[in-house]
Structure formats: C-alpha cells, structure tokens
Amino acid sequence: MKNLSAEFYSRPTPDIARNLLGKVLVHHTQHGVTAGRIVETEAYLFHGDPACHAARGRTRRNEAMFGSPGTAYVYLIYGMYHCINVVTAPEGEGEAVLIRALEPMQGLPLMAMRRGCENIKMLTSGPGKLCRAMGIDLQQNGADLSKGLLYLADDGFQPGGIITSGRIGISVGAELPLRFYLDENLFVSRKGK
Fold it and tell me: Following DSSP, what letter does each residue of 94-145 receive, concatenated?
C-alpha cells in the first residue's frame, strides 16, 4: 500500500471525492490497527454550497478545513458522533470530502468492540459509525493524512460502478449531486436518493 501524495489533491473536490472511492483509511492506535476501504463520500464546496461548514467563514471549529490539502478535518455532531473529512482545496479555500462509509478490512474485532456491534455490515456504514470503529476523534483534527498514525493509502484496488446522488443527512444543499458511492457495495450507508 502506498500513501496518497499531495498530487492526489490537485483536482476539483468532486473529482477527489470520486477518486477516494476504493482507497484505504488506516489508523494505528495503542489498541491496534484498523483499516477500511472507502465506499462512500460526499463533497463540500466553498462556493455555492450552503451545507459546507466553510460557507459562513472561518471559525475555531472549522479551522482545519482551511488547511492544506490532505489534512483531516474532524468535527463532532449531535454532541456525540465524530465525522472525518479530507481537506481538498488549496489552503484558505475551505473545501473537503466527508468519508461516509468504509468496508472493514483490518482490525474487525477491535472495531466491533469499539462499536459494541458484531454485525460487520453495521460497523462502518455511516460517518459516525466509522469514526467510532476506527478510533477517530477530535485528537486527529488537523492531522496530515499522508503520513503519521492516521493516513490514506492506495492498494491498487480498482472500483467498479460508481453512483452519483444528492447528499444525505443535511437540510440545505442536499439536492447537489455531490455524493458518490460504490454500486452494489454492502457497506454503503444508504442506497440512492
């Protein structure tokens, strides 16, 4: 497996969201290593996207989103679930790709223990679920995803069919065709919208 380099991020955010499908998210912790193949993503754009956290400007919460491409932007929702995004636009722009679902690959017993769930299909089939299973929280906010303990890698997997749809779980901008997922994959959070 080869870590994704800075060159991977030298294209528009929706293209990066599509190209992240099939890549691997890996996290080394004191409890063990977990890894999963990315099977669902959503792009969030700085301009013309009311659902993007950066749309209303830079804040303490979204500061990492304005960082260098390949930076982790991790935030808390509903006071209990973490979500991980990959910063994609040039520094200062505030664009990112939300990783919505993974296909578990490594560390399944650890994922199951963290989630309190034995059903493999439910371990990482949503942004909050995958963060809990992978041991990702605010400590990883701002991490460089090209190196370190939390990183993105390419193992040569070539995804088959990719479906594009509106985004889910948001109240504005849901109609924008910025959600991408692997067709027929059992670990996608929700089929078409």
Answer: --EEEEEEEEEEE-HHHHHHHHT---GGGSSSSHHHHHHHHT--GGGTT-BT
| Helix, coil or strand: residue 163 | strand
Secondary structure of 33-84 as H, E, C letters: EEEEEEEEEEEECCCCCCCCHHHHCCCCCCHHHHCCCCEEEEEEECCCEEEE
Structure token pair of residue 188: 């996608």
pLDDT the model gives residue 41? 98
Which among 43, 38, 50, 49 has a CA at the least distance from the CA of 14? 43
Is the pLDDT confidence value at 172 over 90?
no
Question: Which domains does the chain possess?
Answer: 2-182 (3.10.300.10)
Q: 3-class DSSP state for residue 7?
A: helix
Whether residue 80 has pLDDT greater than 90 = no
pLDDT score for 193: 52
Average of per-residue pLDDT across 50-68: 91
Lookup: tokens for 107: 């560390």
How far apart CA 159 and CA 182 sit, in angstroms, is 7
Cβ(95)–Cβ(70) under 8 Å?
A: no
**Residue 8: DSSP 8-state:** G
